[in-house]
Amino acid sequence: MSTDSQDLVPITLTHHGKPHTFSFPSDATISNLSDEIADSLSVPPSNQKLMISKLGLLKPPFKDPGLSISSIADKKITLMGSTAVEASSISEASEHASRRVTRQSRPMQKVSAYKTHDWKKEQQEAQYTFTTLRPLPYLPNPSKSLQFLQRLKDDAGIKASMRKHKFTVPLLTEMNPIEHTQSNHEGTSRTLGLNRNAGEVIELRLRTDAYDGYRDYKTIRKTLCHELAHNVHGPHDRNFWDLCKQIEKEVEGADWRSGGHALADEEYYGSEDVDDHGGWTGGEFVLGASGSGGAASTGNVVSAGLSRREVLAKAAEERMKRLRDQGGENAGSGSG
């Protein structure tokens, strides 16, 4: 790369609310920026997520590692990710608090063999997890929804799979059922999960349509496996389904519990297939294959310029039309 001072390109990004400026030769790439972030800010590549205006969320290893620094010099760049020290501190603080509570609650007893802690595993679980859990405060009993989200976060199978694939999701939240349900004379279509910007936000349908209970835990967990696969693959192509099935097997295999159970006294309903219309990027839904001009589409349904509700309605209409053309088999089902 050229090192002449007149060829240096300044790059400014924001991390934890503070701006940081770096200078690169004009032929530098986004991979060089990632290396500089690791060296200067101590945020390892596995923790880095770069939100770049007009380009969306990019993270190492980049789909285009040769992306020129000059092409993003004038764009707003936000770095999301914890330093190795921060991740380690959170894990150590949690461990110390847990041991203190355990000592205070148990009676005095003879000294027994001390169980060795897997510090590496615990640090990874503190890093590869859901950073924030958020129920919808305007729906009934948000504390029960928070309890459900916490159970998903603590699920042994989910933790093992997120650790294996190095998934960090900043926000896990619930969706409002009424905003993601479409009904017509042929049946009812329910969206069970959404993934925004390759894992920036995951929404899950926790509640029944009438808000009078919560859905089956294993169905919700299966939906979460589906949405985690969208962290890597947006469209429902073969690569996506292979990863989705892999995550489901990992979650089932690592779940040492006997199975799902009801939260408090709420009623749970039967399982169903996951329906989520694919990944959601930049405020719009990616419904499948890419259409012309960058508009996301599926069949004849194009999402450019439409609201989320309109996109879901059109997608449901198109799915019903395809089912009618095929003889009406499985009409109204919730397959994604």
TrEMBL record:
SUPFAM superfamilies tied to this protein: Ubiquitin-like
Residues making up the signal peptide according to the UniProt record: none
Region feature Disordered, mapped onto this chain: 88-118
Protease found in the keyword field: yes
Gene3D superfamilies membership: Phosphatidylinositol 3-kinase Catalytic Subunit, Chain A, domain 1 (3.10.20.90)
Pfam families named in the record: WLM
Keyword Plastid: no
One of the GO biological process terms: proteolysis
Keyword list, A-Z: Hydrolase, Metalloprotease, Protease
UniProt-listed InterPro entries: Ubiquitin-like_domsf, WLM_dom
UniProt protein name: Ubiquitin and WLM domain-containing metalloprotease
Organism name: Lachnellula hyalina
